[in-house]
Amino acid sequence: MLDPLETTRRIDDAFLGYLRSSFGPRRPELRDAYHRALNEGGDLSRGPFVQATAPFKPGRSVDELIRAGVLSAGMRDLAESFPLDRPLHGHQEAAILKSVEHERNLVVSTGTGSGKTEAFLFPIIEHLLREREAGTLGKPGVRALLLYPMNALANDQVKRLRGLLAPLPEITFGRYTGETEETQLRAESDFQQRYPGATLHPNELISRQVMKERPPHLLLTNYAMLEYLLLRPDDTPFFDGTHARSWQFLVLDEAHVYNGAQGTEVAYLLRRLKDRVLKSEQGRLRCFATSATLGRGWRTTRSSWNLPSSSLASRSSGARRTRPDRTSSRQRGCR
């Protein structure tokens, strides 16, 4: 049963945490004054206002997918951070099936708050758990690049990964943006300022120095920083050498942002990335694109990005040349 008052409190706390972590001044006296203003400035929200919406069409739970052999038994390690017996949304199950069983590129187009993250993150985690079983997960190196149009979205995803991957210390992740500190000492200080009281888990890499030494399995960044990473000699460990031979996934979040001239720029950026890490090898990089506003059907997606009828994923990244599946949500009681 939803408690509107408790939900309102959690929303206020989450928004306060976002304001503290995203806009905290570096000077201690200014930071303290900023935090006092946030804490004493009154309510950040009005309400609560409650609106009933039809639930999404349900699918099988993670536990059921494990018993069916779709997901490996290692996914049960997530029991501490994700309810394995809770039914997934139908579009989440469809995305997992298409990605894990058929290794498809996917465009996930469904509304805000409908679980798009799980649609691409669970197949990636499944791949990493199979690496763990094979004994190759201990090797550093990027397996998945999660590309965001702005730092705020990357920061929010890091907070989710911090909780979700806490039971899986073997899977490392790191956010490399303009806000990422160079040294570990400064990064730890920045972490405590951004996330007061939060625990820094050993699988979260927070400094550029450590990420260059041991590239994380999940690398989160934005397209502007990716441009710099591909150009700067100091950042070659992500793309060249012994730590750069395991690239498997590319996730393009909020894909509707990349249209027009910006879409062309990002498409060429991803081609450069593919040429760098895969040496033009076809069929190895699996791609996901997510958006809540891509419209209806492949024709709308294609016209939004001014693409020919060939694969979106192939055109943007040089991935396996198959037309990507489009997974969308359905709600019960809605036409």
Describe this protein's structure.
This protein is of the alpha/beta class. It has 12 helices and 10 strands. The protein has helices at residues 4-23, 28-40, 62-67, 90-102, 116-134, 151-164, 184-194, 208-213, 223-231, 260-278, 297-304, 312-317, and strands at 58-61, 87-89, 106-109, 144-148, 173-175, 204-205, 218-222, 249-252, 286-291, 325-328. It has an 8-stranded parallel beta sheet with strand order 6-5-7-4-8-9-3-10. A two-stranded antiparallel ribbon has the order 1-2. Helix 4 runs parallel beside helix 5 and helix 9 (223-231) crosses helix 10. The longest helix has 20 residues, at 4-23. 32% of the residues are buried. Residues 304-322 and 331-335 have low confidence and may be disordered.
